[in-house]
Amino acid sequence: MPELPEVETVKRGLTKNIISKKIKSVQINTDKLRYPIDKAQLLSLKNKVIKDIQRRGKHLIIILEDNLQLIIHLGMSGVVKIVNTSEYNKIKHDHIILELSDDLNLVYNDPRKFGYWLVNTNKMPLEHKVLAAHGVEPLTDDFNAEYLISKLKKTTRKIKQTIMDNSIVVGVGNIYASEALFDSNILPTRASNTITKKEAERLVTSIKKILDKAIAEGGTTLKDYKNTEGKPGYFTQQLNVYGRANQNCYICSTKIESLVIAQRNTFFCKKCQR
User: Fold this and answer.
1) What count of Cα atoms within 13 Å lies in the side-chain half-sphere of residue 161?
2) What's a BP term from Gene Ontology annotated to this protein (predicted)?
3) Cα dist. 216→11, 180, 237 in Å?
4) Rounded to an integer, what distance in angstroms lies between the CA atom of residue 45 and that of residue 100?
5) Does 56 participate in catalysis according to the annotation?
């Protein structure tokens, strides 16, 4: 599933290519993604100019004129591509195509169809129901040790579950939760309310560092993810624990272990993490 670094990479690619472009046509090739598609609302975007691209957690928000916003979630396998209109050839799972001015197409491809496209007419996009309950952004000053401790002391959930809770901090997905916990030497199975302030400081620093590094590398491609140019992310080469079960830890040579926490595969080093 594309996580915050992957969505941020897509956002930057869109910002570079489609700001000020007009939507010339909207082609819809499916009735349903995760939710049924409101075709009338999507078709109403024709002739609207794209004013800005924002990100909230794992959501892309395309700001259009006339107080319209297009909220996109990539789901498990969604890919947003920018291709030249004159060179575009439709392939399987190209579900939505926006033809833009200046010979550009924005194409949404999603084999598993767990993503969604929602048109919002509220002047305040962050009040939309899919965004309203989100917690703080991890790369902002609002995400700090004091904030995190205030949330951790209220729950006995495993620490990995808590930092993946979008109502607390948004966008720290499965890959980066495992990597940040390794970087901060904290076992993913620790009860949240046992984390000390010093450990919380390390964890906040690690989350920010890991996410920043992943963004710099264009995200992580394990299977489906590609950026707007169709290129994979290269942070895969820097993963210390994720996907490395039974391989030697790069720090201490202990075998990396894995278990399932809240239905998500979790990877850790029992010697480096406590």
Assistant:
1) 14
2) base-excision repair
3) 13, 16, 13
4) 11
5) no
H or E, element range at 140: none
- Determine the length of the chain: 274
Instruction: Indicate which residue of 56, 58, 81, 160 is catalytic.
Output: 58
Does 188 qualify as catalytic in the annotation? Answer: no
Number of H helices, E strands in the chain: 6, 10
Pairing of strands 94-100, 59-64: unpaired
**Domains defined along the chain, listed by start:** 4-127 (3.20.190.10), 145-268 (1.10.8.50)
The answer to whether residue 264 is catalytic is: yes
Determine phi and psi for 118, rounding to 5 degrees.
Answer: -125, 135
pTM of the predicted model over 0.90: yes
Does an H or E element contain 180, and which?
A: helix 174-183
DSSP, collapsed to helix, strand or coil, labels residue 196 as: coil
Q: What is the pLDDT of residues 39-68, one digit of tens each?
A: 999 999 999 999 999 999 999 999 999 989
> Could you tell me if 253 and 237 are in contact, meaning their C-beta atoms sit under 8 angstroms apart?
no
Is 32 a residue of the active site?
Answer: no
* Helix (H) or strand (E) segment spanning residue 30: none
Residues forming the annotated binding site for DNA?
Answer: 93, 112
Cα separation, 61 vs 67, whole angstroms = 12
Distance CA 237, CA 219 (A): 11
In the numeric block, which tokens belong to residue 33? 């993604």
Q: What is the pLDDT of residues 210-245, one digit of tens each?
A: 999 999 999 999 878 899 989 999 899 999 999 999
Measured distance between the N- and C-terminal CA atoms of the chain, rounded to whole angstroms: 28
Integer Cα distance of 61 and 55 in angstroms: 6
